Amino acid sequence: MQTLSTTSLQVRDNQLWILDQQALPQQKIWCPTPDVATLVGHIKALRVRGAPLIGLSASLLLALLAENGMPQARLADALEVLRASRPTAVNLMNNLDRMKLALAQENFVTALTFEALRLVEEDKALCNSIAEAGNALIKPGSRLLTHCNTGGLATAGVGTALGVIALAHQQGKVANIWVDETRPLLQGGRLTAWELGELGVPYQLICDSMAASLMAQQQVDAIWVGADRIAANGDVANKIGTYSLAVLAHYHGIPFYVAAPHTTLDRHCPNGAAIPIEQRDAREVTGVAGRFGDVQWAPDNARVYNPAFDVTPAALISGWVLDTGVVTPAQVAGGIFQPRV
Ligand code: MRU
């Protein structure tokens, strides 16, 4: 396969490399990803993360395994193992459905490579279209709040919600970005803060619990988040803490926008209650683990609830900013996301 390089994915020497998003921003470590078990490990540990990026990394690995001689039947098994690696972001399943069609072809090696590279190029274009559509909603002097990480690290392109913010900044419309640190794994504090710094966007990092008082003080003009799955009724699964922001925005009369590519839409999922929510290791909440050292502050026997995502009901969303344009609450109520007949 040709050499390929995005913010957090590379293909070189016929191998997939991922930028370890658990080591950022202090260390830039590129991890070799030669096989399915390694990629599944990276995905589960959130070394590679973000709805679009998970799907792209799985697709690229399948294509590389095919090029390196893996037979069709084993590739089919590998595809299903990758599909099961994380349950909530539907981009993974949508991308792998397309890879499965390529795998069924007689010339499956060429077809898989073609499809994986096409998915990467499409994602870049989807990000640009989302940024254009979202930018039209941003007023000069905006103070925006974002949650988790939705930038170039999480996609092959400029990102989703963060791509909108970056474009609005280029046009001189951003006064300040409030960055939720995003407990427990700190995607905001580590990744979004780093990306905004690289882009030169003015930001201030806050603990998640500080958002309410900022809204009460009229310091937030709009909230911009990404999505891991959009159900047919417009309900949105995104990083845990998103729902609280939507409730707060509703109370304070602040617009709440969800930015995502159409690959995040699941027309066959009727509503948020049907979205599978990943539950994660208790140690993410009882302390911090890994490169920060293993620090535990909770008692040894603390019982923990640690869902990675929550569901924001459609009624709390002001607009779904897709690559195809801004979808309004009236359009969602009219069934625009329902299965096509
Ligand atoms: O657990 P993560 O870090 O993969 O969660 C990521 C999010 O919730 C993002 O908001 C979402 O995937 C959109 S990324 C463009």
UniProtKB/TrEMBL annotation:
Instruction: Identify the domain of life.
Output: Bacteria
Q: Which stretches are annotated as coiled coil?
A: none
Which Pfam family is one of those matched by this entry? IF-2B
What pathway does the annotation place this protein in? Amino-acid biosynthesis; L-methionine biosynthesis via salvage pathway; L-methionine from S-methyl-5-thio-alpha-D-ribose 1-phosphate: step 1/6
Question: Could you tell me the Gene Ontology terms of the biological process aspect for this record?
Answer: L-methionine salvage from methylthioadenosine
Alphabetized UniProt keyword annotations:
Amino-acid biosynthesis, Isomerase, Methionine biosynthesis
Q: Quote the catalytic activity from the record.
A: 5-deoxy-alpha-D-ribose 1-phosphate = 5-deoxy-D-ribulose 1-phosphate; 5-(methylsulfanyl)-alpha-D-ribose 1-phosphate = 5-(methylsulfanyl)-D-ribulose 1-phosphate
Described by its record, this protein's role is as follows: Catalyzes the interconversion of methylthioribose-1-phosphate (MTR-1-P) into methylthioribulose-1-phosphate (MTRu-1-P). Also catalyzes the interconversion of 5-deoxyribose 1-phosphate and 5-deoxyribulose 1-phosphate. Part of a bifunctional DHAP-shunt salvage pathway for SAM by-products.
Give the matching PANTHER family: METHYLTHIORIBOSE-1-PHOSPHATE ISOMERASE
Instruction: Return the protein name.
Output: Methylthioribose-1-phosphate isomerase
